[in-house]
TrEMBL record:
<feature type="binding site">
    <location>
        <position position="287"/>
    </location>
    <ligand>
        <name>substrate</name>
    </ligand>
</feature>
<feature type="binding site">
    <location>
        <position position="258"/>
    </location>
    <ligand>
        <name>pyridoxal 5'-phosphate</name>
    </ligand>
</feature>
<dbReference type="InterPro" id="IPR049704">
    <property type="entry name" value="Aminotrans_3_PPA_site"/>
</dbReference>
<dbReference type="InterPro" id="IPR015422">
    <property type="entry name" value="PyrdxlP-dep_Trfase_small"/>
</dbReference>
<keyword id="KW-0093">Biotin biosynthesis</keyword>
<dbReference type="GO" id="GO:0005737">
    <property type="term" value="C:cytoplasm"/>
</dbReference>
<keyword id="KW-0663">Pyridoxal phosphate</keyword>
<keyword id="KW-0808">Transferase</keyword>
<dbReference type="GO" id="GO:0004015">
    <property type="term" value="F:adenosylmethionine-8-amino-7-oxononanoate transaminase activity"/>
</dbReference>
<comment type="similarity">
    <text>Belongs to the class-III pyridoxal-phosphate-dependent aminotransferase family. BioA subfamily.</text>
</comment>
<dbReference type="InterPro" id="IPR005814">
    <property type="entry name" value="Aminotrans_3"/>
</dbReference>
<comment type="function">
    <text>Catalyzes the transfer of the alpha-amino group from S-adenosyl-L-methionine (SAM) to 7-keto-8-aminopelargonic acid (KAPA) to form 7,8-diaminopelargonic acid (DAPA). It is the only aminotransferase known to utilize SAM as an amino donor.</text>
</comment>
<dbReference type="InterPro" id="IPR015424">
    <property type="entry name" value="PyrdxlP-dep_Trfase"/>
</dbReference>
<feature type="site" description="Participates in the substrate recognition with KAPA and in a stacking interaction with the adenine ring of SAM">
    <location>
        <position position="22"/>
    </location>
</feature>
<comment type="subunit">
    <text>Homodimer.</text>
</comment>
<dbReference type="Pfam" id="PF00202">
    <property type="entry name" value="Aminotran_3"/>
</dbReference>
<feature type="modified residue" description="N6-(pyridoxal phosphate)lysine">
    <location>
        <position position="287"/>
    </location>
</feature>
Length: 453
């Protein structure tokens, strides 16, 4: 008599009813669903007791480990006090204290905070707020946005409208706005002998040409500072952000910084924009904001934007955008504690040491015959697999070489979920050098397996 294990039983129940994100469910006829019972720092523990090192921070959200005691305690304390209250006409201490702390730690001038509940929603807020600002200023002709090639900002319709990853966009194209695409300053696309700063300057020249033609109809330029994450972990030089700020000022368009994935220490500084010493007009935050515990996002903007909406009710200038769980006290309280960890512990200094170790361990892959690039920005690193190194010819997408690395990782206790054939590392900040060794060793052996035929 066959008896299902607890893990098998949970998977069967899952596949009986659930529809998972970013997944072709048919794949799970052959690709294992991994049932997780609990988290333990940088590790996930399966229902069957197997342990998996979370090399991607559970979709880039987890900063200080699963079931972090300090964050869990703050959540429990808040749950005993106030779980939620309507945020229109009401307020509460966690939301106010978090806003004060966000204003304190973000780049200068970002002194107004609007809460939403996930990254895509934050992008929607920023896009609508930028458009509405110009409308309130008497510039209703400004209805378009400039985005970078290869960009990804989310999968709600507005966020998808300013994204340029065909995998996500092409199906819904008839429903979307059409962005004006500026060439990405991605250093991987450098011409022979061209440095990353030179790529940034060349691309700024092309952006200037676009603004000369379109600034009159453009609300904002939206970018992911330093790393275009879902677009393949493409990385570029901070000079581009500095030049972008100058161009936005010159041509009177907004600068929207999507720091949803790159904020909170991922790039080596608390926020990526700091590396160019710029303040955007809008900064979108989510993911690491709550240390990976709860959904929450925030859009920070400046006084000039806020005052364009501040008027008598009869003027009809209010920003009428809301989410039921806006300013949720549980999420705000955990986010405040997350920022407290940055304040109380040497997180960024420790991250620099971990990033250096990761860089040393990945360096030998630069000579691999099927690796076109090894790139890194802070605690984000990526390895680009190709069929031919000299020409950078990719493997056929149907080969799913990256998937082979992922499956190998699961068999060896590591979560390495690729972006196509880009194997990337974005671990929680509580990993040890030994954990990094485990991730890299698993990736190296997985790559050898993936390119073997």
């Amino acid at each position: 008599m066959n008896t299902l294990t607890a893990a098998d039983a949970l998977v069967r129940r899952d596949l009986g009813h659930l529809w998972h994100p970013c997944t072709q469910m048919h794949d799970h006829e052959t690709i294992p669903m991994v049932p997780i019972a609990r988290g333990d720092g940088a590790w996930l523990v399966g229902v069957d007791g197997r342990r998996y090192l979370d090399g991607i921070s559970s979709w880039w959200t987890n900063l200080f480990g699963h079931a972090n005691p300090r964050l869990a305690a703050s959540l429990a304390e808040q749950a005993r006090t106030l779980e939620h209250v309507i945020f229109a006409g009401f307020t509460h201490e966690p939301a106010v204290a978090l806003a004060e702390e966000l204003v304190r730690v973000t780049p200068p001038g970002l002194d107004r905070v609007f809460y939403a509940d996930n990254g895509s929603a934050a992008i929607e807020v920023a896009l609508k707020m930028s458009f509405h600002y110009w409308l309130n200023q008497g510039h209703g002709e400004k209805t378009r946005f400039i985005a970078l090639t290869g960009s990804y900002h989310g999968e709600t319709l507005g966020a998808l409208s300013v994204s340029d990853v065909a995998l996500y966009r092409k199906t819904y194209a008839p429903l979307l706005l059409t962005p004006i695409l500026a060439p990405s300053p991605d250093a991987y696309e450098a011409e022979p002998g061209e440095s990353a700063p030179q790529v940034a300057q060349r691309r700024l020249g092309e952006l200037r040409a676009l603004l000369e033609r379109h600034a009159h109809e453009v609300c904002a330029v939206i970018v992911e500072p330093l790393v275009q994450c879902a677009g393949g972990m493409r990385m570029y030089h901070p000079d581009y952000l500095a030049g972008l700020r100058r161009l936005c000022d010159e041509f009177q368009v907004h600068f929207i910084a999507d720091e949803i994935a790159v904020g909170f220490g991922r790039t080596g500084t608390l926020f990526a924009c700091e590396q160019a010493q710029v303040s955007p007009d809008f900064m979108c935050l989510s993911k690491g904001l709550t240390g990976g515990f709860l959904p929450l996002s925030a859009v920070l903007t400046n006084t000039a934007v806020y005052e364009a909406f501040y008027a008598e009710y009869s003027a009809g200038k209010a920003f009428l955008h809301s989410h039921s769980y806006t300013g949720n006290p549980l999420a705000c309280r955990v986010a405040l504690e997350t920022l407290g960890i940055f304040r109380d512990e040497p997180v960024l200094a420790r991250n620099r040491q971990l990033a250096e170790h990761l860089s040393r361990r990945l360096a030998p892959l630069r000579d691999h015959p099927h690796v076109a690039d090894v790139r890194q920005t802070g605690m984000i690193a990526a390895v680009e697999l190709v069929a031919d190194k000299a020409s950078r010819r990719p493997f056929p997408a149907a080969d799913r070489r990256g998937l082979r690395v992922y499956l190998h990782g699961l068999r060896h206790g590591a979560v390495l979920r690729p972006l196509g054939d880009v194997i990337y590392f974005m671990p929680p900040y509580v990993v040890t050098p030994q954990d990094i060794d485990h991730l890299v060793d698993t990736a190296v052996s997985g790559i050898a397996l993936a390119v073997s035929d």
